Amino acid sequence: MLNIALFGPPGAGKGTQSEFLIRKYNLYYISTGDILRKEIVRKSELGLQAKSIIENGGLAPDEIIVQIIENTIKENPDAKGFLFDGFPRTYIQAYILEGLMIKLNTSLNCLFSLEVKEEESVKRLLIRGETSGRSDDNEEVIRFRLKEYEAKTRPVLQFYKERGIYVPIKGQQSIEKVSQDIDAVVQNELSKSLFNMVLFGYPGSGRGSQGKALAEKYGLEFVATGPMLDQEIKMQTAIGKEVESLYESGQLVPDHLVVQIIEKKLEQSKGVKGYIFKGFPRTLVQSYILDGLLKKHGSSISMVINIEVPTLELIQRLDARSKTNHGMPYDNSTAKIVKRLQEHETKTIPVIEKYNQLHGVCKIDGLGTFEAVFARLSKEVDEGIKRMR
Fold this sequence. Notes:
By secondary structure, the chain is of the alpha/beta class. The chain is built from 16 helices and ten strands. Helix 2 (32-42) packs across helix 4.
């Protein structure tokens, strides 16, 4: 998600640059004045509270503003991000927005400040006044508004300077050059975003081989818990010894051990473009764990794909695999194969349904040659990466 705050004194060209960002990056525009008026027109509970305060000569308090902003964000889950205009206006509101972003598992990527000298702003606004007929576009009012802007926003800009996301933009350049400068920063910000994909499919759907091939093609890190646990056993690490003991006694590997090896993988894989997760999460609990792990590393799930193959075809594939040296322990009898498929049905399908509600799950037909399925997957991944950028 791309979240941007746009600042600039009156006459800096915020409206023009807002339109550019909204159009190019499919951002949802949040102006506190606009959304407050919408709530009042809708006669929502918050709108009625705000209306009562405003009619009595007061300003809508931060408590109401932040709730309206939160509701607006939640009501627009398909937005690629949000563009904040007119918020935060104060140092306190900057803290409020930061807390709200944390609550919503996201963050503000950058704050653009369109820098324009006072005389240039006055000149632009006087010209606007000649054509717009706005009574407040006279020199005395303009200079007062500029001084007020400078006094109120300085602490806010300092807040974001300290967080390293304040980006000054020379606003006296041509509109096209200002847009280019903003776009260059946004593109750089987007390039930092990891592309994280969860690859689902019943045993025998080909997700392992397809996942490895996709990882190689797109320069992603392939994360498969089974091979990672086997590697821990081979290296005879503390985790490996514990897992080996569990295997020997026929027990399942508990989540706290799986999490440790995934976290170690994330820590060690610096500089990667993203991850493909196969075999994790298998359960709803593990899905929440993965969300938390990625959030801890400043990232999130970008795409979820489910490879679909008919049940009879899965049984045939797994039965055939049992006769090769690639066979798995659950391949050696029809009863075990069916049990494993039922396990996926009861434990993992609810995870897919959860992700479908949150992100949307891309369904891929898993029938056909390896190359045909890989082509279908690649097409969807290309689209997924394109949407991120």
